[in-house]
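Running co-folding for adenosine monophosphate.
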Amino acid sequence: MRIIILGPPGVGKGTQSALIAKKLSLKHLSTGEILRRAVFEGTELGKKAKAIMDAGELVSDSIMIGIIRDCLQSKEINQGFILDGFPRTTTQAEDLDKLFDELKIDDIKILCLNADKDELIKRMSGRGRRDDNIETISNRLNIYKEQTLPVKEYYRKSKKVYEIVGLGDIDIINDNIFKLLTLKDEHNVNA
Ligand code: AMP
């Protein structure tokens, strides 16, 4: 199965992606994690990304699509993947579509996890990550609204976007995601 998970920062994309990846034996591709690891290891990518991430800004589309190209070309994704944190701009979404065409990857499911702004601020403030201070949080939420929400509209034009409420118990949210994913599968089998 191939899944893209969309949603604002702090909504629990990482947590839910990890659970889904484990249950379905998918590769969890988190661009935030890839970048944080690069910063930690002090690689060239990490040096470029650090200040941008600390400010809650977005790393450039060309760097990001390069990272995703490497991931999608690796054998590790043969069993399927869940893409978490990418695409974050419509340019990234368009480039990703081209990449999927090129690599003959199709049948992508789009999940969108949602929560209201107060809840997101509360959650991010409690995470203790270095990009979770109050200025960075509000910048990240603004950037989400301006640059990433249009990605959802982009996908709505060609695909079904599954909306999930990201509030409440982690396991219940996860069950809801599974119900949606299974529904689609049954529909496909009967089609
Ligand atoms: P995340 O863990 O997904 O919230 O990502 C943490 C930070 O990494 C973001 O605030 C951005 O600075 C950067 N980042 C992650 N994914 C992307 C992306 N697809 N495009 C641009 N920047 C990204």
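Result summary
The pocket of adenosine monophosphate is lined by residues 9, 31-32, 35, 52-53, 56-59, 64, 85-86, 88, 92, 131, 140 (CB under 6 Å).
The longest helix spans residues 134-156.
Job closed.
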